[in-house]
Specification:
Largest sheet: 5 strands, mixed
Number of helices: 1
Structural class: alpha+beta
Strand order of the largest sheet: 1-2-3-5-4
Radius of gyration: 16 Å
Shape: elongated
Low-confidence stretches: none
Number of strands: 5
Distance between the termini: 35 Å
Mean pLDDT: 91
Order of helices and strands: EEEHEE
């Protein structure tokens, strides 16, 4: 397994599954009374290599959703973690499979 904090070209990946997390934008929202919240958009790309590419992609998507749910429970400083899209490529590039998760993270900005 490989986990990266940036996107990488497929040619540079040597171990699968590979998960890449990038933050695509951050906005600060003022809600009054001096309270501020940061709203951050993120993207998680996951790559698998398997003969059963559809199953491998679905399992990786399920695992990533489980981890995100765990983060929500264990880190109460995150007001919300929302998954906006969860997609797999359904085996179009077999034996390489891809998962794309786009989401939103909201946390109090102190």
């Amino acid at each position: 397994e490989t986990v990266l904090d940036h996107d990488e070209f497929i040619e540079a990946i040597n171990s699968f599954p590979c998960v890449m997390l990038t933050f695509t934008s951050t906005q600060v929202r003022h809600v009054g009374g001096g309270e501020r919240y940061s709203v951050t958009q993120f993207r998680i790309r996951g790559l698998t290599m398997s003969d059963d590419v559809e199953d491998a992609g679905e399992r990786l998507a399920d695992d990533l959703e489980h981890v995100i749910g765990y983060i929500k429970r264990e880190y109460p400083e995150f007001e919300e973690i929302r998954l906006d899209t969860v997609k797999t490529d359904e085996g179009l590039n077999r034996p390489l499979g891809a998962v794309l998760i786009e989401g939103t993270l909201v946390y109090k900005n102190e």
